[in-house]
Amino acid sequence: MLRAHYAHATMFSARFPAGPQSSAAVGSRALRGVTAPAGRTLLGATALACCALLAGCMTKSAGLEMRTALDKRISELESAAQTRDSELQAKLDELAQGLESARVLLTRDSADVVAQVQAQQDKMAEVEGKLDELTHNLTDIIEQTAKARAELDDKLGKLGTAKTGEMSLDTAQIPTDKAAHFAAAYEAYKAGDQDKARALFKEYVTRYPSDAKAGDAQYWVGATYLVQNKPATALGEYRKVIALYAKSPAVDTALYGMADAFYRLHACTDAKGALDALAKRKAGKALEDRAKQLVRAIKEAPKGYCTS
Question: Could you give the CA distance from residue 292 to residue 213 in angstroms, rounded to a whole number?
Answer without folding.
Answer: 27
